[in-house]
Amino acid sequence: MPLKITANIYLHRMQTQQYLQQRRKFAAAFLAFIFILAAVDTAEAGKKEKPEKKVKKSDCGEWQWSVCVPTSGDCGLGTREGTRTGVECKQTMKTQRCKIPCNWKKQFGAECKYQFQAWGECDLNTALKTRTGSLKRALHNADCQKTVTISKPCGKLTKPKPQAESKKKKKEGKKQEKMLD
Q: Is the distance from CB of 65 to CB of 96 less than 8 angstroms?
């Protein structure tokens, strides 16, 4: 019997220790939860409540933007100036970063992109060939022409080269002339 009592006591002690361990874990978790709630509540209390923004009708005009001016060269990154009018405008001028693509035709404005047709036939009177382009895209609401026409010199006007057969005939004719002489 003493052995049975000792085993029961030992078992009771183990159960008591497990129970106490579970209570400690629960207490620690509960304290952590309370701490987190207090931290969140403190953070929210620290924030100043912003008054709701009143919808204010502005008498400021629309922004008007200048053309993009590259910082170096005639294409790449640059800046543009913006202005607007209005009595109660806080900001009437500002600068904006912009980019001019380097492969665009700059003679029609660096902010206008055109889709061009194939070059036309050479005009023998002017020695120029032309082609027409229609507006494909305009950057930053740029004022672009709907269609543009460009011209370039025709280049050398060459006579058609004789074909290989006619060269052979000439050589044969010369050989026959030498034989006759």
A: yes
Confidence of residue 103 (pLDDT cuts 50, 70, 90): low
Residue closest to 78 by CA, chosen among 36, 140, 132, 25: 140
* Closest residue by Cα to residue 137 from 96, 98, 108, 97: 108
- Answer whether residue 160 shows pLDDT above 60: no
- CA-CA distances (angstroms) from residue 3 to 9, 11, 12, 117? 10, 12, 14, 107
Find, among 131, 129, 81, the residue nearest to 105 by Cα: 131
Q: Tell if the pTM clears 0.70, that is, is over it.
A: no
> Has residue 127 got a pLDDT over 70?
yes
DSSP 99: E
What distance in Å separates the CA atoms of residue 154 and residue 132, rounded to the nearest whole number? 16
